[in-house]
């Protein structure tokens, strides 16, 4: 007698669904059917997932707003110049700059061997790069690489304003 391939599973949501388990090894089918019985059916699972996307979007929007507020406060505190570029990229660039620079400060000064004079020199280089896209492109860079990345920035990445505040 052959091990059955089709199982009628009553899911936790109450729906009864016939599942074709022929693509599973014969000795794994009963255990998989038991596992399926402990889950919602596919339709209920998809409905719950799609309904939850609104709360994920709300959470992400709140997180981005919090990051933007911290970046704006940091920009003002350290007198960083405003970024240039498309309006859509400005906030993202500001958040990317804030995250990379604060992480670099921690790595180079707080935990590293740099002193405040070294950092002040680097901070002036940071102020010269005002293209939002450049900061977005560096968002995944290692904090310790920031000095070298700033040296590699081109004139297209630097603003045309007077760098001497």
User: How many β-strand runs?
Assistant: 2
Summed over residues and divided by their number, the pLDDT gives a mean of 91
Count of individual helical segments: 6
Q: How does the overall form come out from the CA principal axes?
A: elongated
Question: Mind explaining what this structure looks like?
Answer:
The chain contains six helices and two strands; from the N terminus they run E-E-H-H-H-H-H-H. It has a two-stranded antiparallel sheet. With 165 residues, it is mainly alpha-helical. Helix 2 (42-77) crosses helix 3. The mean pLDDT is 91. The chain has helices at 29-37, 42-77, 87-110, 116-128, 132-137, 146-152, and strands spanning 6-10, 16-20.
Main attributes of the structure:
two-stranded antiparallel ribbon, elongated, 165 residues, mainly alpha
In brief, what are we looking at here?
With 165 residues, this protein is mainly α.
SSE blueprint:
Layout: E1 6-10, E2 16-20, H1 29-37, H2 42-77, H3 87-110, H4 116-128, H5 132-137, H6 146-152
Antiparallel strand pairs: 1-2
């Amino acid at each position: 007698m052959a091990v059955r391939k089709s199982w009628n599973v009553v899911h936790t949501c109450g729906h009864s669904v016939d599942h074709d388990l022929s693509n599973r090894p014969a000795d794994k089918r009963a255990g998989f059917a038991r596992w399926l019985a402990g889950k919602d059916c596919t339709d209920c699972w998809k409905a719950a997932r799609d309904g939850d996307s609104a709360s994920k979007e709300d959470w992400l929007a709140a997180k981005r707003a919090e990051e933007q507020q911290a970046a704006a406060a940091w920009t003002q505190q350290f007198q960083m110049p405003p970024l240039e570029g498309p309006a859509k990229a400005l906030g993202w660039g500001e958040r990317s700059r804030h995250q990379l620079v604060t992480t670099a400060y921690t790595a180079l000064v707080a935990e590293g061997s740099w002193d405040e004079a070294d950092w002040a020199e680097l901070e002036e280089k940071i102020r010269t790069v005002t293209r939002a896209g450049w900061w977005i492109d560096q968002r995944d860079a290692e904090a310790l690489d920031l000095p070298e990345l700033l040296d590699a920035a081109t004139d297209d990445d630097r603003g045309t304003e007077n760098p001497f505040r």
